[in-house]
Prior knowledge:
The protein is an alpha/beta fold. The chain contains six helices and 15 strands.
Amino acid sequence: MGHVHVLDHPLIQHKLTLIRDKNTGTKEFRALVQEVAMLMVYEITRDLPLKEVTVETPVGVASAKVIAGKTLAIVPVLRAGLGMVEGILNLIPGAKVGHIGLYRDPETLMPVEYYCKLPAHLEERDVYVVDPMLATGGSAVAALRAVKERGAQRPKLMCLVGVPEGIRAVQEHHPDVDIYLAAVDDHLNDHGYIVPGLGDAGDRLFGTK
Ligand code: URA
């Protein structure tokens, strides 16, 4: 069974509080989401494998380490997931970026994929599906299924805020997936918003309403 990791680094928690604040405007909100995504990925990648190399310094030769293996793949779920990508790329500029677009069928209420463009060789990469809000879990479950169908092995899910309902849905459909969150909130309201949450992440990122 995958694990649920709540990343409680003080900087992540401090910035998340600013993100939640309804008085935080679009520009600051966007910057903070990028910063939290960067800090989260810093924590999550703690166990990446390393390999030994030698490097010439100005005064000698050092045996040193670099990250081994294929570059990571980040897969934001459109549209709010886009708000986390630049922050991750600041730290891991070589990461490949895929995109998944989902809409909810008005009749079945199930997520339907309308766009999917993913990096090659997904089976050899560490794949991170990113979306700020883990609410019902419908889109996360569908996005994880989409990357697995295209080869991803044990992808990870990274969100800012989740609720128990969403976590349970992901665990039920993808028991192998580790979930990384900055906070687990109380519940979903009748409109599908996380309470207390931070509102509509996409609207707050892009200044729409
Ligand atoms: N999506 C959001 O943007 N906010 C929520 O609270 C739930 C889903």
